[in-house]
Design brief:
The structure holds two protein chains of two kinds. Chain A is 34% helix and 23% strand. In chain B, the strands form three sheets. In chain B, strands 1-4 form a two-stranded antiparallel sheet. A two-stranded antiparallel ribbon of chain B has the order 2-3. In chain B, a hairpin with a 2-residue loop joins strand 2 (154-158) and strand 3 (161-165). The chains are: A alpha/beta, B mainly alpha. Chains A and B meet through helix 2, strand 12 and strand 22 of A and helix 8, helix 9 and helix 13 of B.
Chain lengths: 507, 356
C-alpha cells in the first residue's frame, strides 16, 4: 500500500500512509486508538475505497472495489467486531459467500453441505476448535467465535491475512493456539498483518513493526530494534502543549492535598464480564483519570457506577452512605451523572432541541399542573448555553445539527443543571475539535474546583495526563496500576496499558 | 427442529380434541375444505417467510392477493364488466403484475434504503386502491369461468369432493420448491445470513441488495399464485378479497417459529403455523361440548364466533412468550458456560494502594 489517504467529512483519517507486507512475514501494525489502523485495513479489505494512493500485490497495481475483489486477490480480513451470523452453523459461516454460486445455476446452486462440513472440520482442527461444524455460532463463546473467524480466513487460502486484535477475547490457551497457527501460516508463505496493542504478542510474533499515529506513518522497526520503549515512544510521541490544559486552581488542589474523606469509594466492585473486582476512590474536587486501551473495561466500569449494569459483587459508598444503583435513575438521584462515550446514542435525543435535551433527565421538575413548564425549561437551557458557551443559533435548534463539541456541551449542560456531586465523563472529547476541547477542559476543571468529583475515562494520553490528579490504568478489565500526578509519564502509562510493564503503584 | 416438534404436538392435540368434541371436524367435506384453506394461506405465508427470514416485512401481500383476482376477473370474465379475453391471458397478466409489484417494492427498499414497513404499507394501500378502481366499487363475477374448477376440483373425486384438491397440490409444490431453495441452495443460505447479520453477509461479499429484492419478488409472486386460487374459490371479486391477509401470513410465519428479527424459521414451521391458523379458525366453528341442562335435556355448548380474533391473538401471544422463555433460558445457560473458564476471583489481581 502506498500513499493511502482517506478523509471522512473533512477529517483526514489517513494521510499518505504506506505499508509493505511480505510473504512469509508477520508485520505488526501498531498505533493508539484512532491512529487509523482500522481504516487502513478496511481499505485493504475492499470495505472502503481510498481517496488517494495505490495498492500493489506482487508489484501489480490492483483495484479493491469491494469485498469480493479483495477476496479474490487473496486478502482476508479478521475484524475486531466478529462478522458472523449467529443463526447459522460454523461451517455455514466459514464458507459464507464462497459456496460456489458461480456455476450455471447461480444462486440456486445446491449447497455442498457434506463437503463444507468436511472441509470445515479440517479447518477447525487446524485452529484447535473441537466443536462439530454443525454447531450454531450463536451457541459459541466469544473466543470460539474468534477461532471460527480465523478458520474462515484459512478457508479462503488467503495470501494476506489481516488480523485486527485477534486475541482481545481469547483465553491464554486459545491465544497460544492462535500463535501456533500464525507461525504455521508464516512458514507456508502467507503474509500476515497483525494488529495488537499487546507488547508481548508483538515481540513474540512480529518480524517487523509499522507504527501509525494520527493517521500518519511514523516509523518502521525491524525485529531487533522493536523494543517496547521504542514502539511506545513512536505511538504516543506527541509534543505536549503545556497551556492547553487549565492549571489547577489553588482551591482544587487544596481539597486534594487536604486529603478529605473520599466521596466515592469502590471496593472489589465486580463488573459483569470482568475477571476480578476493582477498587478505587475519588475525593471531592479530584479528577481521577482512567487510562487503558479499548476493551480494557473502563466503560463497563463507569457504567456500573452509574447503574446501567448492576455490579455482581463488591460495595460502593457515596459520601459515606452505601451506594448500590440498580438503574441510572438511582445514580442520578444520588447526584451521580454520566456523559457517555457514544453521546449520539446514549447521551442525546438527536431530533430534539437543545432545551428539550437539557431538561430530559429532570423533566419531572418542570411539571406545573401536569403541563410542561416550557418557560422554566427555556430559562435553564439559556443559562446553560451561556455558561458553557454552546454555539447554537437558538435553544430550539435540534441538537443533530450541532457540531460534536457543542453536542458534548449540551450533554454536560443537562447534567450541570442538576448540580451533580460526581460527574463521570467517558471519552469527553472524542471527535471534538481543538477549540471546543479547551472549553470542555476549562469547564471540567472549574467543576472540580467547585468540589465536584470527576471520573474521566479517556484514550487520549495527553488528555489523561493534562487533566487528571491521579490516573487508574486498566488492562484486560483489571486495574494495572494507579499513578500519582508526579509519576505521570506517557511511557509509564503506555507501558501499564499494554502490559509491557507489570503492575505498579506509585508512592 | 425442536420448535417444529413442539408445534406439531400442539397441533395434533388440538385436532384430536376437536375431533373428540365434534367428529364432523374430520368429516370429508369439512376436512377437505380446511385443507383447501390451509393450502391457500400456506402458499403466500411461505412467500412472507422468505421476506421475514431475511429480516424484512411485507404488508402488501393481502392487496396483491386481491389485485390478482381482480385482474383475472376484469380481463377474462365473460360476465358483465369483464373484457372477455382468454383465461390464460388473465392469469399471465395477473402473475406478471404481482411479480413486478414485488420487484418494485424490493428495489425501493434496497436501493433507496427505505424501511420495508413503510414501503409495503404504502404498497398495500396503493394496490388496494387500484383493485377498488378496477371493480368500480362493486364486484366482478368470474361467471362460469373454467378457473372455478381450480379451487373446487382436484384428483381422486370421492362423493363429489376431490381427495387431493388442486390448491393442496399447488401448496405441496410450493413447499417442495420453497423448502429446497431455502434450505438446500446458496440463495437460501444467503437469505438466512442476511437475516442473521446483514453486515457479516455484506462483508462476506454477498450481494445483499439483490438477494433482499428477490425475497420481495418471491413474496409477491406467491401472493399472486394464492390470489389465483382465491379468485377461483370465491368466484366474485370485490375490493374486499384479501383484506388483512398479510396479517394472517405474518401470524402463521411467527407461529411457525420465524423471528421478526430475521434469520430464524423453516418452511416446515411455516406449514405448521399456517395449518394451526386455519385449524383454530375452523375449530372455533366446530368445537362443541355436549351436556345436559338442569332439566336433563341434552344440549350443545358452542364457542361464540365473535371470539375468533381473541383466540387467534391469544394463541400467537402464548407461542411467542413460550419462545422467549426458551431463549432466555438458553442464553442464561450459555453465559454460565462462558463464565466457566474464567471464574471470577474476588481478590484484585494487582495491588492498588491508596495514594499517600
Amino acid at each position: 500500500m502506498h500513499g493511502i489517504t482517506k478523509r471522512f467529512a473533512g477529517v483526514t483519517a489517513l494521510a499518505d500512509v504506506s505499508l509493505t507486507a511480505r510473504a512469509g512475514e508477520v508485520l505488526a501494525l501498531m498505533g493508539e486508538n484512532g491512529a487509523g489502523k482500522s481504516t487502513l485495513i478496511k481499505i485493504l479489505g475492499g470495505v472502503q475505497p481510498a481517496d488517494a494512493g495505490e495498492i500493489r500485490i506482487d508489484g501489480r497495481a490492483v483495484l479493491l472495489d469491494g469485498v469480493r475483489a479483495a477476496k479474490s486477490l487473496g486478502i482476508a480480513l479478521i475484524h475486531q467486531e466478529l462478522m458472523l451470523a449467529p443463526n447459522l452453523d460454523i461451517a455455514a459461516n466459514i464458507f459464507l459467500g464462497g459456496e460456489g454460486a458461480g456455476g450455471p445455476l447461480g444462486l440456486l446452486a445446491p449447497l455442498p453441505r457434506a463437503e463444507m462440513n468436511r472441509k470445515a472440520a479440517a479447518l477447525l482442527a487446524r485452529v484447535g476448535l473441537d466443536s462439530p461444524p454443525t454447531t450454531p455460532v450463536g451457541a459459541l463463546t466469544v473466543g470460539q467465535r474468534q477461532m471460527v473467524e480465523i478458520a474462515r480466513a484459512l478457508s479462503a487460502s488467503a495470501r494476506i491475512i489481516v488480523m485486527d486484535e485477534p486475541t482481545s477475547s481469547l483465553s491464554a490457551q486459545e491465544s497460544a493456539r492462535l500463535f501456533e497457527v500464525i507461525r504455521q501460516l508464516r512458514t507456508d508463505g502467507v503474509g500476515i498483518i497483525y494488529i495488537s496493542h499487546r507488547m508481548e504478542e508483538v515481540q513474540l510474533l512480529a518480524d517487523r513493526v509499522t507504527v501509525l499515529r494520527d493517521g500518519r506513518h511514523v516509523g518502521d522497526l525491524g525485529r531487533q530494534e522493536a523494543t517496547t520503549d521504542k514502539i511506545v515512544a513512536l505511538m504516543v510521541g506527541r509534543e505536549l502543549t503545556g497551556d492547553y490544559f487549565p492549571k489547577k486552581t489553588a482551591k482544587g488542589s487544596e481539597v486534594i492535598t487536604a486529603g478529605g474523606p473520599p466521596l466515592l469509594e469502590v471496593k472489589d466492585l465486580l463488573v459483569p464480564g470482568a475477571p476480578a473486582g476493582v477498587s478505587f476512590q475519588v475525593r471531592r474536587g479530584e479528577i481521577l483519570g482512567f487510562a487503558g486501551l479499548v476493551g480494557a473495561g473502563r466503560t463497563e466500569l463507569v457504567e456500573t457506577v452509574f447503574g446501567v449494569t448492576p455490579a455482581r459483587a463488591g460495595t460502593m459508598t457515596l459520601g459515606g452512605q452505601p451506594f448500590a444503583p440498580r438503574r441510572p435513575r438511582d445514580a442520578i438521584r444520588r447526584g451521580v451523572c454520566l456523559a457517555p462515550e457514544d453521546r449520539k446514542r446514549n447521551g442525546l435525543v438527536l431530533p430534539m432541541s437543545v432545551a428539550e435535551n437539557s431538561s430530559l433527565p429532570n423533566v419531572g421538575s418542570y411539571n406545573r399542573w401536569g403541563w410542561l413548564d416550557r418557560a422554566a425549561e427555556r430559562r435553564v437551557a439559556k443559562a446553560e448555553v451561556a455558561r458553557l458557551g454552546i454555539k447554537t443559533s437558538s435553544i430550539t435548534t435540534k441538537v443533530v445539527t450541532l457540531s460534536g463539541g457543542n453536542q458534548q456541551k449540551v450533554v454536560l449542560g443537562k447534567w450541570l443543571a442538576m448540580s451533580p456531586k460526581l460527574l463521570i465523563l467517558d471519552e469527553p472529547t472524542r471527535g471534538i475539535d481543538v477549540g471546543a476541547r479547551a472549553e470542555i477542559y476549562r469547564q471540567v476543571a472549574a467543576l472540580a474546583a467547585d468540589g465536584v468529583a470527576i471520573l474521566m475515562v479517556s484514550s487520549d494520553m495527553e488528555e489523561v495526563i493534562g487533566m487528571s490528579d491521579r490516573v487508574v490504568v486498566m488492562r484486560e478489565r483489571r486495574v494495572a496500576g494507579v499513578l500519582e500526578r508526579a509519576a505521570f509519564s506517557q511511557e509509564r502509562i503506555g507501558a501499564l496499558m499494554t502490559g509491557a510493564q507489570k503492575a505498579e503503584v506509585s508512592a | 427442529m425442536r420448535r417444529e416438534l413442539g408445534m406439531s404436538a400442539a397441533l395434533v392435540a388440538m385436532c384430536l380434541a376437536l375431533f373428540i368434541s365434534n367428529s364432523d371436524f374430520l368429516g370429508q367435506s369439512n376436512a377437505i375444505n380446511t385443507l383447501r384453506q390451509i393450502s391457500m394461506l400456506g402458499i403466500y405465508a411461505i412467500g412472507s417467510g422468505f421476506v421475514i427470514i431475511a429480516g424484512g416485512i411485507d404488508l402488501s401481500v393481502g392487496s396483491v392477493v386481491g389485485l390478482t383476482g381482480v385482474i383475472i376477473a376484469k380481463l377474462s370474465s365473460q360476465a358483465s364488466g369483464g373484457l372477455g379475453h382468454s383465461l390464460g391471458l388473465g392469469v399471465f397478466v395477473a402473475l406478471a403484475v404481482a411479480l413486478l409489484i414485488g420487484l418494485a417494492q424490493g428495489l425501493l427498499i434496497t436501493r433507496l434504503h427505505l424501511q420495508p414497513f413503510i414501503v409495503t404499507l404504502a404498497g398495500m394501500l396503493v394496490i388496494r386502491g387500484i383493485s377498488q378502481t378496477i371493480v368500480e366499487g362493486g364486484t366482478l363475477s368470474l361467471g362460469t369461468s373454467p378457473l372455478l374448477r381450480l379451487a373446487n376440483g382436484g384428483l381422486f373425486m370421492h362423493n363429489g369432493d376431490p381427495l387431493l384438491p388442486y390448491p393442496l397440490l399447488m401448496f405441496l409444490a410450493v413447499i417442495a420448491v420453497g423448502g429446497y431453495v431455502l434450505h438446500y441452495t446458496v440463495l437460501g443460505r444467503y437469505v438466512y445470513a442476511i437475516g442473521g447479520n446483514r453486515e457479516a453477509a455484506a462483508y462476506s461479499g454477498i450481494n445483499v441488495k439483490r438477494v433482499e429484492t428477490l425475497t420481495y419478488v418471491v413474496s409477491a409472486g406467491l401472493a399472486g399464485v394464492a390470489g389465483v386460487c382465491y379468485a377461483a374459490y370465491i368466484g366474485q371479486m370485490s375490493q374486499q378479497v384479501g383484506v388483512a391477509y398479510e396479517l394472517y401470513a405474518i401470524a402463521a410465519v411467527v407461529l411457525g417459529g420465524c423471528s421478526l428479527r430475521g434469520g430464524e424459521g423453516t418452511v416446515l414451521g411455516i406449514v405448521i403455523g399456517s395449518t394451526m391458523m386455519r385449524v383454530i379458525d375452523n375449530g372455533i366453528n366446530m368445537f362443541q361440548i355436549r351436556y345436559q341442562d338442569a332439566d336433563g335435556v341434552p344440549r350443545l355448548w358452542r364457542l361464540n364466533p365473535n371470539w375468533t380474533f381473541v383466540i387467534v391473538g391469544a394463541v400467537i401471544l402464548i407461542a411467542v412468550v413460550l419462545d422467549q422463555v426458551v431463549h432466555v433460558v438458553q442464553d442464561a445457560r450459555r453465559i454460565r458456560g462462558e463464565a466457566q473458564p474464567h471464574p471470577p476471583s474476588p481478590a484484585p489481581a494487582t495491588p492498588s494502594l491508596p495514594p499517600t
